[in-house]
Amino acid sequence: MDLLAIETSGEIASVALQRGDTVWERRLQGYARHAEHVLPAVQAVLEEAGLAVGQLSAIAFGAGPGAFTGLRLACAVAQGLAMPWSLPLVPVGSLEALAAQAGEGTVLALADARMGQCYHAWFRCCGGRIEALAAAGVDAPEALFPPAGVGPWHVIGQGMEPLWPRLPEAIRAGAVEIVLDATVQSRDLLPLARRMLAEGRALPPWEVAPYYVRDKVALTAEEQAALRQRRVQAS
């Protein structure tokens, strides 16, 4: 299987191509570089693998939640590459990709959503399979709570160091392992995308869309003032 993966939702974007056991990868530092350099990075890994776009088995992309512009970029690039060849696309959830790095058991995956909030989702990871225990959401850290009936859990977060103290004690006390500075790169999408392909969960290019979770992208002046006040009180 020849699988291309594109991830542009974070500060460090990347593309990766897997052929057999070999993975070629390019990373791009800084949001401003993503749109300009993602296609040349795709071309570079294709050339290293000796492949053309039409020879790919499928294209995976980081579908979110995450930075809105980055999610739209990854989706649009994947669609643009896939449509002329009717290649299947595999939208991989960013929180699911985080959870896959945490090991076996119950996992709380978190990511900084800005505006004083975090994206969150609970998963059960077992034998390489990842089962969502609840739909992903976006809330103030104080509003999070564990699902009923779950035991100790792993916590893995992206950009969560500043927000961790705001999570309820019930969340923090139940964690047996805590990683708050994890990242999701294109190579992290590959094993999840392969499993999704095997399970028939790929989609035609015209049916995919980013998974935003949150529709609101900016705070009002009053909300910004309230957020600043909470930060002062927490410091």
Automatic annotation (TrEMBL):
GO terms for cellular component: cytosol. Residues 33-145 form the Gcp-like domain. GO terms for biological process: tRNA threonylcarbamoyladenosine modification. Pfam families: TsaD (PF00814). InterPro entries: ATPase_NBD, Gcp-like_dom, T6A_TsaB. Gene3D superfamilies: 3.30.420.40. This is tRNA threonylcarbamoyl adenosine modification protein YeaZ. It comes from Tepidiphilus thermophilus. The lineage of its organism: Bacteria, Pseudomonadati, Pseudomonadota, Hydrogenophilia, Hydrogenophilales.
